[in-house]
């Protein structure tokens, strides 16, 4: 009797569990700020002297009454300088430079998923999760990365070197699946943003290890038999000289 | 019919004639003579399965097969003289109204203890003591000198 | 002939087409918009095509103003021709034609966002439905608002809006006055197709006035646009993207605007609701009474929503000339003060110094007895900030009959200049400020003294980049301004043309000088006024077509008091007074009174004034009586009783009338209309209700010359705490909370 009741209870639990789960995944962090010791409005933040020159240069691209147009390049520069993420004081500083209310800068920084508002690793690995890459196995690649690094998505490894995030289509569908490595290890001077295409779960781990050793793995397609976006093993069609367009030369007809 | 008579005879033999009539009254057979609703329920009950009994003693019956679909679940209230739909506790409501196929007993297992407010039937129309009167209402026995504004009190000098 | 020639010929033909097209369009437009063509013959010819269309009335009294008659264009809304000025949007054209277009994000007074897509209409020859709020109407446009396409488009939009909207209408304070609720009755489906989890958003803390339930937000951005454009505090923004989009401040920040309550009104859903009103009442239980606000001198038009004997909330009423459709937070939220600290019984201070509640008969008898025991010149009357014109008239008549003429209204200073009406009202008028191009604020901080006037100045500054110069202590402004100086010497510099701001002033076409009523209390006020008048003369601010010399008053009673001539005979009268009648006056300095003076306090709140009183006479507050108030621009308006009086309180003028009877000098009127005919003989402008009576003469040329120079003392802040200015607001808990949390210290 008791056994049957508990059996039934299990069944009931099962029945009730079929409700859709509240699972949402965002590539970006929260849309509001929570004060923490390394991220609060009272922390001082300044562009470095080298970057101040760049700021001047960026601002000079825009008319003086439309300074606010410089918000995205300035935020990008600030992010590169600050190791890949934007503390709230950096956004405040940008707002001061372009003379707008801070909230106008927050709006921009929260809109674009390329601006990180929480800490990332020195190498921020972004896995493309859009349909073509997903069909070609981006989930496995992300799982392999997460397993190898022992972190969750948007979490930084203990040594502060790596973090894994998801990005929407980066326009490399022809070489899917792909990951991007944003390299913040050398500040804004040595900042690189490289695509690694045609990766496999094995290959991404190798890339990560190479990065850990300080090497720079060759960017682009990781399939040795392909050149850029060309087909595997060389071209198979369109081998001859391209024919002239038919009936375009109006005088010839 | 014969089985009913046989059951009654058996019961008289067990309880004696007085006990039999007491049981008849408690089960509502006597009030059923005057209450058509109850009589119909009793007639329905013949051959139906008793699915469960809640803590108030309401009995929940189900009869599949020759009953019209949608009328195959019903309740016989514990109270035979004063019954209404609000006596059904929430855990049985869903089963009774075909919201769920899980019986009240099963749903009770899922009910978290911390929400344990006892079910209370609706006493509307059962007398003034059951009706809620807001603060300041003529029939609210509390606070008679209640005002909607707070007067200024001179400071005790 | 080769293909090339063919092609070039085709090209030629097409260019010819494109060349002729604008020509035809131009011609067509000329036909449509030329009035003479449209007047007689054209109308006669086109008269028949107006067959079975019923006459339409514009939505909500929408008016069409043609700044230039040549710019009129004609569009067709559901086949009904309507003439509108060029530049109007399709939605506005539909409103003029009497078709109400559903909308969420569009608001008359805010910039156009066009992001809710609810206002989709069908336009002939347009491939897709058109968002009417953002589409300019073009000549000859055929707009269709009730076609299946438009309906289907709106139903689609509504389904998306309801997708993430919680189904909590039964516990939502907006329920019953919710735009989304109303429009989903017309365009919503009875079931949704969305099977995912609904989005939920963290609530934001916007301070003690605005309650947020951000999950209900439909991202119309009205609140963002309001706070940026009208309130002038750039705190709110739209954060995130896609389905994660939310309204917020990003960093924890309270909304420190004096107009923040208006976001409650403009929010089309229940995302922003009133915190003090939360779960207090449903809007259909409330009785609306159209009244006016008395907490400042603007006289904002309000609707007092009451349930039974309680004021439940206060909402703005549209008045283009005064408050448009906004009100300040003080006006909106001080109402809980009406329920606290009320005087409900007449009281007499006994020999032991304690108050004892007595009957009206006894209280009036005591007052009448005492007033006969003092000499007439020792009798002083002070009207309070919230007094209405009728009671001030009665008080003045009564004290005059007793032989005293020492009566004034607090805030007007010891020797107010009541001779010339233009010397104490806002001559430009509040709506007239929009035409000004330079403002000179002298000793006034409109943001705290009159928030609605400040909103008007901000609107002007935003629209026309008008310059603002400010003289006074350092203050908070929500628009660009130049702080010229702190004291009268800056004024002298301006008058003598030595100040850099002079060029801006003299180049201005319509300069507006606003003098704060705070300087009424200064001894050198006549000198300051004469300096300001010199400036006005220099820059030609007072002309037949423009009067730019304004005084911004502080209290609701001030203008009416000066109209009625409540001017004390001597400015030292309070120091020798033996009998002083405080009619709601709480801010008068009673410390100067002799110890043996007899103080009668007549008012509705136990505030500062009662503690020195010997007799307390309970009066009714402005929500409980009918009274006339003149606002700072000289517009007389009346309050209407919304709720019954509390306890044993009576109307102010009735108490004085009864007192005069007991004292043996009965006043010749015993009805409100009687007292008003008495007012007609003194200040007829107070009876022209809801009309602004401009001052007849302008003071710049009539005032006697003042020889003495103004002091060196800098101007002082007239209002320390925006949220607590009078007895009602000081009794209010919400205002206390606001001043604790929001006032910048």
Automatic annotation (TrEMBL), chain A:
Highest taxon listed in the record's lineage: Eukaryota
UniProtKB keywords: 2Fe-2S, Iron, Iron-sulfur, Metal-binding
Keyword Metal-binding: yes
GO cellular component: mitochondrion
Cofactor note: Binds 1 [2Fe-2S] cluster.
Region Disordered: start-end pairs: 212-253
InterPro entries cross-referenced by the UniProt entry: NuoE-like, NuoE_dom, NuoE_N, Thioredoxin-like_sf
GO annotation terms (biological process): mitochondrial electron transport, NADH to ubiquinone
Cofactor: [2Fe-2S] cluster
Database matches in Pfam families: 2Fe-2S_thioredx
Residues where [2Fe-2S] cluster binds: 128, 133, 169, 173
Compositionally biased tracts (Polar residues): 220-238
Entry GO MF terms: 2 iron, 2 sulfur cluster binding; metal ion binding; NADH dehydrogenase activity
Record-stated family: Belongs to the complex I 24 kDa subunit family.
Protein's recorded name: NADH dehydrogenase [ubiquinone] flavoprotein 2, mitochondrial isoform X1
Species of provenance: Sesamum indicum (Oriental sesame)
TrEMBL record, chain B:
A Pfam family the protein falls into: NDUFA12
InterPro entries: NDUFA12
Main location: mitochondrion
Listed GO CC annotations: mitochondrial inner membrane; respiratory chain complex I
Example GO biological process: response to oxidative stress
Family note: Belongs to the complex I NDUFA12 subunit family.
Its job: Accessory subunit of the mitochondrial membrane respiratory chain NADH dehydrogenase (Complex I), that is believed not to be involved in catalysis. Complex I functions in the transfer of electrons from NADH to the respiratory chain. The immediate electron acceptor for the enzyme is believed to be ubiquinone.
Protein name, as recorded: NADH dehydrogenase [ubiquinone] 1 alpha subcomplex subunit 12
Automatic annotation (TrEMBL), chain C:
Cofactor: [2Fe-2S] cluster; [4Fe-4S] cluster
One GO biological process term: ATP synthesis coupled electron transport
Gene3D superfamilies, per database record: 3.10.20.740, 3.30.70.20, 3.40.50.740, Dimethylsulfoxide Reductase, domain 2
CDD domains for the chain: fer2, MopB_Res-Cmplx1_Nad11
Residue ranges constituting the 4Fe-4S Mo/W bis-MGD-type domain according to the UniProt record: 286-342
Localization per Swiss-Prot or TrEMBL: Mitochondrion inner membrane
Reactions catalysed according to its record: a ubiquinone + NADH + 5 H(+)(in) = a ubiquinol + NAD(+) + 4 H(+)(out)
Organism: Sesamum indicum
Name this polypeptide is given: NADH dehydrogenase [ubiquinone] iron-sulfur protein 1, mitochondrial
Superkingdom of the source species: Eukaryota
Residue ranges of domain 4Fe-4S His(Cys)3-ligated-type in the record: 149-188
The enzyme's E.C. designation: 7.1.1.2
Molecular function as annotated in GO: 2 iron, 2 sulfur cluster binding; 4 iron, 4 sulfur cluster binding; metal ion binding; NADH dehydrogenase (ubiquinone) activity; oxidoreductase activity, acting on NAD(P)H
Record's keyword annotation contains Mitochondrion: yes
Main subcellular location: mitochondrion
């Amino acid at each position: 009797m008791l056994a049957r009741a508990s059996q039934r209870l299990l069944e009931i639990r099962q029945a009730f569990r079929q409700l859709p789960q509240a699972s949402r995944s965002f590539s970006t962090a929260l849309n509001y700020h929570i004060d923490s010791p390394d991220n609060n409005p009272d922390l001082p933040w300044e562009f470095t002297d080298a970057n101040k020159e760049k700021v001047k240069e960026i601002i000079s691209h825009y008319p003086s009454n439309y300074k606010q147009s410089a918000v995205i390049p300035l935020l990008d520069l600030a992010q590169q300088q600050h190791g890949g993420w934007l503390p709230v004081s950096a956004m405040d500083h940008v707002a001061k430079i372009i003379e707008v209310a801070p909230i106008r800068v927050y709006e921009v920084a929260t809109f674009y998923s390329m601006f990180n508002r929480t800490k990332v690793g020195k190498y921020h690995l972004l896995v493309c999760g859009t349909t073509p890459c997903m069909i070609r196995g981006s989930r496995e690649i992300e799982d392999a990365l997460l397993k190898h690094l022992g972190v969750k998505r948007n979490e930084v490894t203990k040594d502060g070197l790596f973090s894994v995030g998801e990005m929407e289509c980066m326009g490399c569908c022809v070489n899917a699946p792909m990951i991007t490595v944003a390299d913040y290890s050398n500040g804004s001077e040595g900042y690189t943003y490289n695509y690694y295409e045609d990766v496999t779960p094995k290959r991404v781990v190798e890339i990560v290890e190479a990065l850990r050793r300080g090497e720079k793995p060759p960017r682009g397609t990781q399939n040795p038999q392909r050149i850029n976006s060309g087909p595997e093993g060389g071209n198979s069609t369109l081998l001859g000289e391209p024919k002239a367009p038919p009936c375009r030369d109006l005088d010839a007809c | 019919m014969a089985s009913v008579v046989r059951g009654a005879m058996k019961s008289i033999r067990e309880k004696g004639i007085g006990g039999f009539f007491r049981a008849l009254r408690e089960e509502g057979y006597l009030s059923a003579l005057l209450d058509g609703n109850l009589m119909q329920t009793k007639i329905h009950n013949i051959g139906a399965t008793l699915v469960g009994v809640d803590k108030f003693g309401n009995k929940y019956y189900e009869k599949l097969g020759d009953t019209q679909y949608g009328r195959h679940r019903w309740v016989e209230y514990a109270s035979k003289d004063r019954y209404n739909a609000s006596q059904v506790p929430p855990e049985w409501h869903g089963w009774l109204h075909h919201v769920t196929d899980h019986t009240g007993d099963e749903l009770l297992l899922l009910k978290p203890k911390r929400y344990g407010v006892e079910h209370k039937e609706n006493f509307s129309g059962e007398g003034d003591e059951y009706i809620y009167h807001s603060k300041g209402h003529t029939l609210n026995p509390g606070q008679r000198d209640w005002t909607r504004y707070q007067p200024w009190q001179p400071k005790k000098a | 002939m080769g293909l090339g020639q063919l092609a070039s010929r085709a090209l030629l033909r097409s260019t010819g087409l494109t060349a002729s097209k604008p020509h035809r369009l131009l011609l067509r437009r000329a036909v449509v918009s030329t009035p003479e063509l449209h007047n007689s013959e054209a109308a006669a010819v086109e008269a028949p095509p107006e067959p079975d269309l019923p006459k339409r009335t514009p939505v909500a009294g929408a008016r069409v103003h043609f700044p230039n008659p040549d710019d009129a264009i004609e569009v067709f809304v559901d086949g009904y021709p309507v003439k509108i000025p060029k530049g109007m949007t399709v939605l506005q054209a539909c409103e003029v034609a009497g078709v109400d277009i559903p909308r969420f994000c569009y608001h008359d007074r805010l910039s156009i966002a066009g992001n809710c897509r609810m206002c989709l209409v069908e336009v002939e020859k347009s491939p897709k439905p058109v968002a009417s709020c953002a589409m300019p109407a073009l000549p000859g446009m055929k707009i269709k608002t009730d076609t299946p396409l438009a309906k289907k488009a709106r139903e689609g939009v509504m389904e998306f809006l309801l997708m993430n909207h919680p189904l909590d209408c039964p516990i939502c304070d907006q329920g019953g006055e919710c735009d989304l609720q109303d429009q989903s009755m017309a365009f919503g489906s009875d079931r949704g197709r969305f099977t995912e989890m609904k989005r939920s958003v963290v609530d934001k803390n916007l301070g003690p006035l605005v309650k947020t339930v951000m999950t209900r937000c439909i991202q119309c951005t009205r609140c963002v646009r309001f706070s940026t454009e009208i309130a002038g505090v750039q705190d709110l923004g739209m954060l995130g993207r896609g389905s994660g989009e939310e309204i917020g401040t990003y960093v924890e920040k309270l909304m420190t605007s004096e107009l923040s309550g208006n976001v409650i009104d403009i929010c089309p859903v229940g995302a922003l609701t009133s915190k003090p009103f939360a779960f207090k009442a449903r809007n259909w239980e409330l009785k609306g009474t159209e009244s006016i606000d008395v907490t400042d001198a603007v006289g904002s038009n309000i609707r007092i929503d009451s349930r039974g004997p309680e004021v439940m909330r206060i909402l703005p009423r549209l008045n283009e000339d005064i408050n448009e459709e906004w009100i300040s937070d003080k006006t909106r939220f001080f109402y809980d003060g009406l329920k606290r600290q009320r005087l409900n019984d007449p009281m007499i201070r006994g020999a032991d110094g304690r108050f004892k509640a007595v009957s009206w008969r006894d209280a009036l008898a005591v007052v009448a007895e005492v007033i006969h025991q003092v000499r007439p010149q020792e009798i002083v009357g002070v009207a309070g900030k919230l007094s209405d014109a009728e009671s001030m008239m009665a008080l003045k008549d009564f004290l005059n009959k007793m032989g005293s003429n020492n009566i004034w209204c607090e805030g007007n200073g010891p020797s107010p200049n009541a001779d010339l009406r233009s010397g104490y009202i806002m001559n430009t008028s509040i709506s007239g400020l929009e035409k000004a191009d330079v403002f000179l604020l002298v000793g006034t901080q409109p943001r705290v003294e009159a928030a609605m006037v400040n909103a008007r100045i901000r609107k002007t500054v935003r629209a026309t980049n008008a310059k603002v110069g400010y003289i006074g202590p350092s203050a908070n402004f929500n628009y660009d301004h130049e702080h010229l100086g702190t004291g009268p010497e800056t004024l002298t510099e301006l008058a003598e043309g030595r100040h850099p701001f002079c060029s801006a002033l003299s180049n201005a076409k319509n300069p507006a000088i606003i003098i704060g009523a705070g300087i009424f209390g200064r001894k050198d006020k006549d000198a300051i006024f004469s300096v300001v008048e010199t400036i006005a003369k220099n820059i030609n601010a007072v002309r037949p077509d423009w009067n730019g010399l304004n005084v911004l008053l502080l209290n609701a009673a001030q203008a009416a008091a000066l109209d009625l001539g409540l001017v004390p005979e001597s400015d030292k009268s309070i120091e020798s007074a033996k009998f002083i009648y405080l009619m709601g006056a709480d801010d008068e300095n009673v410390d100067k009174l002799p110890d043996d003076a007899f103080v009668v306090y007549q008012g509705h709140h136990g505030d500062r004034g009662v503690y020195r009183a010997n007799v307390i006479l309970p009066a009714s507050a402005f929500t409980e009586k009918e009274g006339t108030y003149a606002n700072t621009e000289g517009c007389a308006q009346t309050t209407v009783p919304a709720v019954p009086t509390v306890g044993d309180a009576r109307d102010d003028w009735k108490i004085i009338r009864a007192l005069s009877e007991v004292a043996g000098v009965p006043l010749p009127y015993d009805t409100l209309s009687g007292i008003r005919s008495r007012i007609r003989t003194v200040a007829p402008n107070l009876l022209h209700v809801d009309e602004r009576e401009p001052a007849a003469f302008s003071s710049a040329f009539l005032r006697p010359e003042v020889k003495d120079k103004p002091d060196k003392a800098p101007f002082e802040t007239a209002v320390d705490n925006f949220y607590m200015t009078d007895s009602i607001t000081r009794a209010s808990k919400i205002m206390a909370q606001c001043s604790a949390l929001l006032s910048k210290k």
